[in-house]
Amino acid sequence: MDAWLDDPLTGRRVRIAEARAKRPNQFDDAQNDDGGGSGCPFCAGNESQTPASTAEALGADGRWLARVVPNRFPAYTPPDGDHEVVIESRSHRARLLDLDETELAAVVRLWAERLAYWRERCAAGGYQLLFKNEGPRAGASLEHAHSQLISRPEAPQAIRREWDHAESQLTATGGCAWCGWLERERQSGERWVAAAEGWAVVCPPAPRQPMETWILPSEHEPGLDRLATSARASAAFAAVLRRTVAAIDAETGGAAWNLIAHVAPAAGVDRAAWHCRVEILPRLNTLAGYELATGENLSTVMPEAAAARLAERF
Ligand SMILES: [Zn+2]
Ligand SMILES: [Zn+2]
């Protein structure tokens, strides 16, 4: 069954989704004798092993390049929410850096399309989470490159806190807090990695992991909608994303990572207050006793040092 568990003593909230326990694991050798491929539900030719597509990006030959399907092992089912998977390639490629330019641009466009699709169907105060887990240490259970989208009728607590802060900043200063922060980062250059194609690549002021990096629109934008409507924009963002991931990959020796898109909540937030960003979080440090005890992260690299190293690789 699915359930929300709320702890009245700590304020902690936990989601139980028993269906997830049944999901296959391609990183488990016993289940993956052939190294993926033939038995992989995400490979082209095995479409009958997944639910029907809810969206597809088609190549010049009319075949799908990337497709979106409902998650067979969902963390959310209606009315609690919806959970989709974006299958990022026809072939059994594991890494984002293995996708070709056309595939990655198609993936990025599908991300933006599905975020907009769910936002339009979501009540005020709801939220869309888009994330990608690359490598088992980042939480991936299937090797075939994929990302996930969850739409919920209620925003997570962490998003609500950020949202309240953004709106109070807008009220106090009349401007977007992120635009101001980005301009200060650009001027100081201390945590600045690069600017390219209308995107800024910056290390955050308080990185949770070594080499954590954010990609933000250089000009104010609350979401990724532009990537759904312009082929040029999706190709440009895909190129910036690839260069960022490649720089992090080189600096971390191919560490697993998570990508998290931080877009404006569904209706109910002032879109002038919310500046979207895409976070890339390498998973070098595990969540250990300290992190679990305090809710804080313990990391080992200053963001200024990370930015200097990534800027050289970018
Ligand atoms: Zn596959
Ligand atoms: Zn802004």
Automatic annotation (TrEMBL):
Binds 1 zinc ion per subunit. Its cofactor is Zn(2+). Residues 20-51 are annotated as: Disordered. Keywords: Carbohydrate metabolism, Metal-binding, Nucleotidyltransferase, Transferase, Zinc. It holds the Pfam family GalP_UDP_transf. Its EC number is 2.7.7.12. The active site is at residue 146. It is an enzyme of class 2 (transferase). Residues 77-152 form the Galactose-1-phosphate uridyl transferase N-terminal domain. InterPro entries: ADP-glucose_phosphorylase, GalP_UDPtransf1, GalP_Utransf_N, HIT-like_sf. GO terms for molecular function: UDP-glucose:hexose-1-phosphate uridylyltransferase activity; zinc ion binding. Zn(2+) binds at residues 40, 43, 92, 144. GO terms for biological process: galactose metabolic process. Gene3D superfamilies: HIT-like (3.30.428.10). This is Galactose-1-phosphate uridylyltransferase. It comes from Pseudobythopirellula maris.
